[in-house]
Amino acid sequence: MTPRTGPLAGRRILAVFAHPDDESIACGATLARCADEGARVSLLCATRGEAGLRVPGSGTEDVGLGVVRRGELQQAAARLGIGDLIVLDHPDGSLTGVEPSLFRQEIVLTIRHLRPDVVITFGPDGLYWHPDHIFVHERVTEAVESFGASGPALFYVVVPHGLMTTILDTAVSNPGSPPDLSLWGIDPDAFGAYAPEPTLVLDARTHVCRKLDALRCHRTQIGEVSPFVWLTEAQAEELLGREYFVRAPVGADTPSCLEEMSRIPNP
To answer: Using one digit for the tens of pLDDT, what is the confidence trace for 59-100?
Structure first.
């Protein structure tokens, strides 16, 4: 294996999310930038996404959705430069029915195996109060906390309130966009409502195209009614090129590689 080079060479980052496409939506540009700057980026996904929606015309109607979405996730992970992909088989839409200690231990074992410097997951609002997302947030927090100060730094992804509304409104106003653009039927105002204020903003504008490429890999979820595909290049860079995080009060208490990266110029 060719040694990784760059300002983050030797660093390891683990992202933990609930469903295929969470990684791309939440922090795809950051993950791609970390990989390009030398970090080893890993992803743990709790479900195969079998209970999600299926965009009409995606050409996958004859295959089980969980199988298709796992394949989509593999493609998206490759676009983002993710080196290790772990997909568990917990029930999509019913994570709250999983024994908390079981999932927590799976995360603990993954951390022991991969030895990340940083773990990234959902914030306490789960982006938009999705129960699966909140369950993952709680278990990841407990898992990292169990390592004490010798463990990885933990960062929560947050979406500033109003950002998704701006994205939707901007896409709708562009010529040729369909009038029924939607964020999976979710009220855009739900994203970031009551989310904590970010403590770290990462500039990943140079990697927005990679984020969008990864999103398009999730073709059963990102169709022609997704506002993301109707943004111009300049709009996408402006609205999607910065990603927002809150450092959790558990885990390592020393400066992290994400904070170091925020000080590296991103031309």
So the answer is: 666 679 999 999 999 999 999 999 999 999 999 999 999 999
> Which domain, by its residues, includes 35?
12-248
Assigned domain for 1 exists? no
Counted domains in the chain? 1
Residue 103 belongs to domain with CATH number: 3.40.50.10320
What 102-107 contacts at long range (C-beta under 8 Å, 24+ apart), as own/partner pairs, is 103/46, 103/135, 103/136, 103/139, 104/139, 104/142, 104/143, 104/146, 105/143, 106/44, 107/16, 107/44, 107/139, 107/140, 107/143
Residue 262 placed within a domain: no
Average pLDDT in the 9-34 region? 98
Note the Cα 186 to chain centre separation in Å: 17
83 within some domain: yes
pTM to 2 decimal places:
0.96
Residue 30 resides in a domain: yes
Q: What is the DSSP string of the chain?
A: -PPP-STTTT-EEEEEESSTTHHHHHHHHHHHHHHHTT-EEEEEEEE--TTS---TTSS-TTS-HHHHHHHHHHHHHHHHT--EEEEEEEPTT-GGGS-HHHHHHHHHHHHHHH--SEEEEE-TTHHHH-HHHHHHHHHHHHHHHTTGGGS-EEEEEE--TTHHHHHHHHHHHSTT--TT--STT--GGGTTTTPPPPSEEEE-GGGHHHHHHHHHH-TTTS-TT-GGGGS-HHHHHHHHSEEEEEEEEEE--S--HHHHHTTS---
